[in-house]
């Protein structure tokens, strides 16, 4: 007779949830910081939270830009941190598409966001399935300039592009250098592309450059022409130097250059003795009808793999309530609906805030919306044009899409392990188990791994045409779909799939032919089961969309993997379930790495004898296999 298990009782008894209550009181947070001052601000904020809510302890970790972005994919897989700093635009949308972050409004009521956040800000982190990030702050871009230089040369901040060009000419004509540009980190250069592309052809033209779509010849010519007005005249200070953004502020402070295009994060590195002498003006536009500004958005996100995400509500509410003071202390602008002008500490920040408030369109930064290789090539194009003092690299790299070779960051970390890139599919929580496991295996063999998630089987298969090193986790039937992969003989683990039912009788008898079953992934074994049982599968892009359909359906049938069951137990407290499939899962590597197969196989066999493996299985509800 088929065994039916009441949902809450079966789940909580089988894994011993109560044993983890004490562990959930420590919340781990990882933050990207650029200065000691920012570190102090974050520490103070989270210390204040601990004082207000004594039942929680915050474990903070700070990383620089390079390390944070390098390690983020691993953190999203391992669940090492419960709360992560992140950034808006395509960088956020990419995480949403990969289904690796938890909707914030599943942890904090959406009504609280709607009341507290500026509508445009809330809209930028929300789609039809939910609100996926808690906005932290935004900051504007513009020109930081030396007031003493301007005063000595009897020049004033420009309001239009033609006035800006004339200003540079006048500054250079009087024996000073108009501009200095940070190039070492590459991304500061892209503010030029953001502003110029919108000035030339609006958001549509900017998006074409982001997508590498064909552009109108007139728009391309106008962009090159506009920036070319700054070239061929040695207007950039020491272009052969690989300046960091911190260094160029010091160059402006020391009067070696009159101004630099920079974001508001520069506030934190301006010498307090020099602060009164440093001014700010918004990027001057060529078109009178251009009311757009670059205003990157800083965010908090919660990994789906986070171990303590159900404990985050109090912390998220605290961060939302204290947004104004935290944003200002971080030299950024608040994102709430509160009146904040009285809290903004500097004339520069007030000018930026007024400019953003008067804008009709706020865009994220180019490298947050474009693919990394597109953004890097664009940055190299600008850097090389500045270095060579001509527009040829700009034409080749940005307009024609040619690969530009230009070394901007000479201090590369040569100690990093080689990286391998594996494909996976969204919609199955057990892939996080596999990525945790295989990360350990590959590190023992001298590699780091990165996981790229795809929405469909075809997309995942197609990734091998573009350099993917293997498939993270698949059933044995996967072999028939590709000849370019080699299966590691030792299975990673067994996985169970469950039929979840609203009604008891649906789980206790054979399903009627033609029944509609909801799923979130394209599992081959689930497809085979559906064919054998003559039922229909309907796939949803996210777990949120899946449960919306499940709740609205009269019959209410869905298939979930084991860890999806436990992860969503509150939503299924009145449902029943039964096991329909139990199969082994395997790791695959591309033929180009076939020499690794015996090494991976042996390492996996050894790892499966360890306590770490058993703990990992228990965490993802695989301990019964």
User: Based on the structure, what is the oligomeric state of the protein chains?
Assistant: single chain
User: What would CATH call the architecture of the largest domain?
Assistant: 3-Layer(aba) Sandwich
Helical fraction equals 40-55%
Shape: globular
What average pLDDT do the residues reach?
A: 87
> What portion of residues belong to β-strands?
15-25%
Explain how this protein is built.
- This protein is 40% helix and 19% strand.
- The protein is α/β, with parallel strands linked by helices.
- The protein has 3 domains: 23-137 and 297-338, D-Maltodextrin-Binding Protein, domain 2 (3-Layer(aba) Sandwich); 141-294 and 362-399, D-Maltodextrin-Binding Protein, domain 2; 419-625, D-Maltodextrin-Binding Protein, domain 2 (3-Layer(aba) Sandwich).
- Strands 1, 15, 16, 17, 18, 19, 22 and 23 form an 8-stranded mixed beta sheet that branches. Strands 2, 3, 4, 5, 8 and 13 form a 6-stranded mixed beta sheet that branches. Strands 10-9-11 form a 3-stranded antiparallel beta sheet.
- It starts with a strand and ends in a 6-residue tail after the last helix.
- 40% of the residues are buried.
